[in-house]
Amino acid sequence: MSKNLVIVESPAKAKTIQKYLGSDYEVKSSFGHIRDLPKKGMGIDLATFSPDYEVSADKKKLVTELKSAVKKADMVWLASDEDREGEAIAWHLAEELKLKPDNRKRIVFHEITKNAILKAIENPRDINQNLVNAQQARRVLDRIVGFEMSPVLWKKVKPGLSAGRVQSVAVRLVVEREKEIRAFTPKASFKLDGIFLNKTSQEIAAKLKKDFDREEEAEKFLELAKTVEFKVLNVETKPGSRSASAPFTTSTLQQEASSRLGYNVTNTMRLAQRLYEEGHITYMRTDSVNLSQEAIEGAKTQILSEYGKEYSSPRNYTTKSSSAQEAHEAIRPTDFSVKTIGDVQLNKLYQLIYRRTLASQMANAKIEKTVIEIGNAKLPQHFEAQGEVIIFDGFLRAYGIVKTEDDDEENNEKLLPKVTVGEVLDYKKITATEKFTRPSARYTEAGLVRKLEELGIGRPSTYAPTIQTIQNREYVDKREIEPQTREIVKMSLVKDKIKKEVLDEKFGGDKNKFVPTDIGEVVNDFLTDNFSEILDFGFTARVEESFDEIAHGGQKWKEMMTDFYSKFHPRIEDVEENADRANGERLLGVDPKTGKNVTTRIGRFGPMIQIGEQDDEEKPVFASLLSGQNIATITLEDALELFKLPFDLNEFEGQTVTIGVGRFGPYVKWGETYISIPKGEDPLSIDQTRAEEIIAEKKLADAPIASYKGEPITKGTGRFGPFIKYQSIFINVPKRYNFENLSQSDINELVEAKLEKEANRYIQHWEAEKISIENARWGPIVKHGKNIYKIPKKKDDTKYEADDLKEISIDEVKKWITAQDPKAFAEKKKPAAKKAPAKKATTAAKKPAVKKPAAKK
Fold first, then answer.
1. How many CB atoms lie under 10 A from the CB of residue 835?
2. pLDDT-based confidence at residue 518 (cuts at 50, 70, 90)
3. Backbone torsion region of residue 751, taken as left when φ is above 0, otherwise alpha when ψ lies between -120 and 50, otherwise beta
4. Where would you tag: which of 82, 175, 570, 771 has the fewest CB atoms within 10 A of its CB?
5. What region holds the Toprim domain (predicted)?
6. Strand partners, 640
7. Angle at the Cα of 736 (from 731 to 741), degrees rounded to 5?
């Protein structure tokens, strides 16, 4: 029997650590936090700010197992991660398992290697209450902000919305960038490029050093260029160098994995977590760029053996951020002799970390930069060609050149041919192209992380969940922005002749960048108008600094909470009482047919257009906006077009055909079947021929691909990926199957596995009442609709077994439900008739006239 119990927060970590410890140690996982604030209710005493922690239902069995293991152990080692969240996990374990200081030890390590684990065992400490309090302060403050601001949004904007201290600031950044883009006025200028030939007919690409504001100026320059002899006026060669970037922090890893590997922030952190837990890299939540002496020596040894002495340049980097948490290292490999690992996806991220760390310990790259000036004294401006040669590659040998999103693709510097001052050059072609200035780019995930870090908002552990939350809340999305077209003028000088042409240029298109949704903009505007301090970047950064002070023992967390809440709560009460409702309503103009006002706003089913007023004799009519349309930018003309929907076409195969738009987007309705119109296709452009094509495609997609026990099997792709359908059961198809070429044995396997799972799911099922007793991960549960209820113990205080539950009557189950939720079966009262609103802006959203299509799989 093990005398030592080690508790970590993840099974993968437990498995790795168990390998390094002998039979005297038993390693168990807590699966993250074993207790937290309750899911229902705030769970905080607002008089004292004391949290009411509870063990969640799905962790009760685990806690029982851990308590049993604790009784058998002489010493319990709490080995959760070395950060505030990890410290809080250790503290919750100590509290819930009733561990005393004499039978518990706290150990920390920033890498899961044998040496690091054994060293941690030799140097235990107790729980750092300052770090625990910093985590509690963040958790409690964020819970209060969310729980008090969200109901204000339900009342003033729309039910079901949420607000949060960091998420709302992140949304504000996206919204403000979008408004900046809308307000941007592009300015045109003419940029000149020349291709010149030296005496050996080698090409030299050069740019004019000044742009022209007007077409006439550019044309005048080209006319002058026809008459002059171009010469090399100057050749300047300068030595230079490039130095490697520091090793990765959480933020820089997320940014680089995005630009080099195309990984989103959540995926990067998931893979990094696995690399850490399997012992390949150091802890992945850090804002430090420091390396240990052991790591510097390990990198040096590898560089000497792989590249040679001239490539080695050991150095340490200092963290610039004053808010860097705790004494972590940068993210680095734990063993530099391990160059690759087996898993392909993990290896891509590992390689990035490995090469970045190695490069940080390598010599600077040496370059030679050449600038050639080309022109003539008669010309008002001269051309300049730039190029560079790498004399010594240094760190570039391991990592290559790092480019950011903001790098201009046109500035790629090339190798230039040899020329001498005074040498005469022939021009092959000189072009003057009209170029327009561009607004600031929309944020990518990595770009938003960089901005949050720059503003001091959030910390390494919060970037990924913040990015995920604002998407889950549907305040921002990454929908594709269709480009617009504009005309540009291009003039070319070739063989003493100027050719002028007008070309079409696409601009403003975007994909995989953050764009605010309509509801995101309305919520942001409401919050910035009414909670300007909470949404203030400086305030949010100062709160983070307060958490840092608590972590270092410089401030008491409940005092910080008292100060914050004394200012925050009165503001909540004031806004709830006095603020106007917000729905983004905007008057677009007057409908020429009816003479009624046309407005756009957020309605019950999303962004919509309304013709007429609520108190008109004739009820107003509604239409939903199409994907890509926005209540802040839609024009009267585009709005009126929406009222052409729905419209009927001719019958097809004896069934009616209608084109419309509903809650799930534009559709073709054929009989009673709703078929989504392909993304980016304008429903108003759908004619009979195209509608029949869409119907035919749907028929083909819905055609049975096989059968199971005489019943047809169909397939499709839905919200959760590829699936097959048997009777009314949807069965997800995992990636290990070839979805495009499923065999009969594949189908049998998938259907039988699903049927077996469904058969084991229900102990009893009363379908009409929507009540069931089901097997769940941690034991049987009762479900009523979407709600889950606990199964009480028997009168003799023992648990119900599965066989017992098969005999339980529905009346008994209803008693269990009512005991936990007295209103579970209460009849819903019809809402009382509302009084006429005082202001148009407060008009309740009316369901659009368009019938919404059924949800697609």
1. 6
2. very high
3. alpha
4. 570
5. 3-112
6. none
7. 75
Tokens matching residue 135: 């985590």
Per-residue pLDDT tens digits for 716-736: 887 778 999 998 788 999 888
Q: What is the DSSP letter of 658?
A: E
Residue with tokens 């199957």: 737
| Report field, pTM of the whole predicted structure over 0.85 | no
* Dist CA 146 CA 242 (whole Å): 46
Give the residue among 720, 738, 676 at the shortest CA–CA distance from 702: 676
Q: Would you tell me how many other CB atoms lie within 10 Å of the CB of residue 205? A: 15
Please state, in angstroms and rounded to a whole number, the distance separating the CA atoms of residues 119 and 524.
49
pLDDT category of residue 838 using cuts at 50, 70 and 90: very low
- Residue written as token pair 């080695």: 312
Q: Are 437 and 522 in contact (CB under 8 A)?
A: no
Task: Find where tokens 């020596």 sit.
Answer: 297
In the structure encoding, which two tokens stand for residue 428, read together? 């092959």
Secondary structure of 313-356 in the HEC alphabet? CCCCCCCCCCCCCCCCCCECECCCCCCCCCCHHHHHHHHHHHHH
Distance in angstroms (rounded) separating the CA atoms of residues 310 and 832: 83
3-state secondary structure of 652: strand
pLDDT tens sequence across 819-835? 888 888 886 555 444 44
Rounded to whole angstroms, the Cα distance separating 181 from 167 reads 22
Find out whether 483 and 506 touch, Cβ atoms under 8 Å: yes
Check 25, 263, 283, 667 and give the catalytic one: 283
Nearest-angstrom CA–CA distance, 3 and 266: 39
740 confidence band (pLDDT: 50, 70, 90): confident
Predicted local distance difference test score (pLDDT) of residue 665:
80
Q: Can you count the helices (H) and strands (E) in the chain?
A: 22, 34
Q: Is residue 283 among the annotated active site residues?
A: yes
Written in H, E and C, the secondary structure of 283-304 is: CCCCCCCCCCHHHHHHHHHHHH
Distance, in Å, from the CA atom of 725 to the CA atom of 416, rounded to the nearest integer, reads 63
N-term to C-term CA, the chain = 52
Q: Are 77 and 7 contacting, i.e. CB atoms less than 8 angstroms apart? A: yes
CA angle 694, 678, 649 (to 5 degrees): 45
The CA distance from 689 to 697, in Å, is 12
Number of Cβ within a 10 Å radius of residue 66? 21
Beta bridge partners of 713: 706, 726
> Could you say which DSSP state residue 411 is in?
G
Query: Which of 199-208, 295-304, 832-841 comes out lowest in average pLDDT?
Result: 832-841
